Predict the 3D structure of the following.
Amino acid sequence: DVKVTQSSRYLVKRTGEKVFLECVQDMDHENMFWYRQDPGLGLRLIYFSYDVKMKEKGDIPEGYSVSREKKERFSLILESASTNQTSMYLCASRPGQTMQGRDTEAFFGQGTRLTVV
Amino acid sequence: QKEVEQNSGPLSVPEGAIASLNCTYSDRGSQSFFWYRQYSGKSPELIMFIYSNGDKEDGRFTAQLNKASQYVSLLIRDSQPSDSATYLCAVSLSNFGNEKLTFGTGTRLTIIP
């Protein structure tokens, strides 16, 4: 079974802190994603990566950065946490362009609920 | 206009009835369509995938796609209380895995015993 693991389930940080959210997948997937999920707004894409050291901005990248030094690990960084970044953060991984159809399913981690105070 | 739109609900359906969930998308180039189910406090999990016009059935679930109308739906037959969850529609511009998935806001479904 595919496993996507996020380093923390719950996190409380102070305004202005630098925050690291870690995600690891064990299926050798090329593509990894960071979403945030807020009530009424659904899942919004922050950043994604289709290869090591490659990254693409999603729909709401402001205030975030990412790092992908190894294929299995994708980190989300909040440079200076703010209260409006309080949210549920979901990491996902997806196979690369050699896969089609149902095999392109995205698998999600368990989520990190971040509270910025 | 949102790229992927769903009625947020809540949608209440009696146990044993058919639940119908709808999704529209704005990009005519979209190729792949996914339905994810998310229980409260849990991560989304895939229940259906479709990329060809028409119906696709998997057990009690049927996905319907109409690319001309830019519309995809999910039918759940013989609804069970365990089907109570939020259903997320996701769309990709490619049939391959190297594309982002764009999600709708989700429809909250409640099955009434």
